[in-house]
Design a protein that fits this description.
32% of the residues lie in helices and 9% in strands. By secondary structure, the protein is of the alpha+beta class. A four-stranded antiparallel beta sheet has the order 1-2-3-4. The longest helix has 20 residues. It is flat.
Length: 197
């Protein structure tokens, strides 16, 4: 617990100082993302439709950008709540600050509020003032029923995570197949595809 407390104390102090030291209206991470998008945005052809809406052409496809509603035809502006390359192109055309179109959660103000609290050391257990009502409580372990069957030893690999299992052939020692599907070995396995042909 002391290690976690010290680690969090360092994180909060470091990130609070970083947030106070930045001159941007948004966090440093967001500013870097916007700078990378600006280079691509300058290559786009932008034509204004009205005071808020613009069309941004990329590779022959025109995306409609509405800065008032903070929407774009590519939907990235709505999903990330950060200006996409088409929105940045439209913003640059009007000479407006890009930070005005970022979500509140990306602003420096919310970054500072996240780390404004301090994490204090709890002190030695002898210095704690524990009320009698808390001391008198008996805390029992949670009710837990042991399920039937053998306990699972390996972790289930979800479908979103790629499996790192590689197959190695017992005959030719190559990776990517096993001995029943081997076509490189001179001795053919009776169940292989080569034997059936």
């Amino acid at each position: 617990m002391d290690f976690i407390q010290v680690k969090l104390q360092r994180w909060f102090y470091g990130r609070r100082n970083e947030a106070e030291g930045t001159f941007y209206d948004v966090s440093c991470w967001v500013e870097e993302k916007l700078k990378k998008k600006i280079d691509i945005a300058f290559t786009l052809n932008v034509f204004p439709v009205d005071s808020w809406r613009s069309g941004a052409e990329e590779e022959g496809i025109t995306f409609l950008v509405d800065l008032n509603k903070r929407t774009c035809g590519c939907f990235q502006f709505q999903f990330d709540e950060l200006p996409c390359i088409h929105a940045i192109a439209a913003i640059e055309k009007r000479n407006i600050k890009k930070s005005n179109f970022c979500s509140y959660w990306y602003l420096k103000e919310s970054w500072l509020k996240t780390y404004e609290r301090q994490i204090h050391h709890v002190g030695h257990i002898d210095s704690w003032i524990v009320p009698e009502s808390v001391k008198s409580q008996i805390v029992k372990p949670p009710d837990f029923k042991v399920p039937l069957g053998r306990r699972q030893k390996k972790r289930h690999i979800p479908t979103t995570e790629s499996s790192k299992i590689t197959f190695k052939c017992g005959r030719c020692k190559r990776i990517g197949h096993n001995r029943t599907t081997c076509i490189y070995s001179p001795a053919v396995h009776p169940f292989s595809r080569k034997h059936r042909e």
